[in-house]
Write a structure and sequence with these properties.
Layout lengths: L7 E9 L6 E5 L5 E5 L8 E4 L2 E4 L3 E10 L3 H9 L7 H10 L3 H11 L6 E6 L1 H9 L6 E7 L1 H8 L11 E8 L2 E7 L1 H5 L5 H23 L1
Parallel strand pairs: 1-3
Antiparallel strand pairs: 1-6, 2-3, 4-5, 6-10, 7-8, 8-9, 9-10
Length: 218
Amino acid sequence: MTDQAPPRNSRRRFMLGGGLLAGAWLATSAFSQEESFVAEAREGAASEEGGVSMATRKITVERISVTSTKSFPEVVANVEGRIGHPDMNTFRSEITKAKSFHEVQNVVNKAVGPSGFMEFARFDLGEIVRKERGGKAPQVVRLVIGNPLIMKQMVEQVPDAGSYAPVTVLVHEQGDGVHLSYDTMASFLAPYGNAEALKVARELDAKVEALLSAAANG
């Protein structure tokens, strides 16, 4: 049996604002990379027209990417084995029927897997690519995962957190292996300056990063 190479970790940072994204690559080492993308956007600008106010916020996003030497099916299976897969119709029905927050906690705790997360949705983006390019096209799957109890703790402090949770884990093939990528919640919430929300976000990020590393290692 040959030894598996340890997963490689990289962190990338890019800036979002005004719906624009552009930038350049900066490599720091063979095992860690940092990308800086700067979007041209107005920060804190607001305009009023006809009684409607519009504000633009600039957000610097950090992306974690773990690279595995395992096959794509193995990596996806490793993620799947660590998250819950509730029937979403049943899950929503049980949440609706819950008479107290304690009952909601029980429903969620039954739905999540060992990682503390459950799957909300998945999108096989690679399937669309393969329709044109055939079976040799790289595989790409987007998994939307999370924990409603963690989401609640952030949203009640920063409502905009609802734009980013549940979170996305992207599993995709590249020339150097299978990448598991995730945009950190703490980087999304940092501009809002809410210490309590940031504490929860950092704890969430640590859980997701542990999941990615475990899935990469198998």
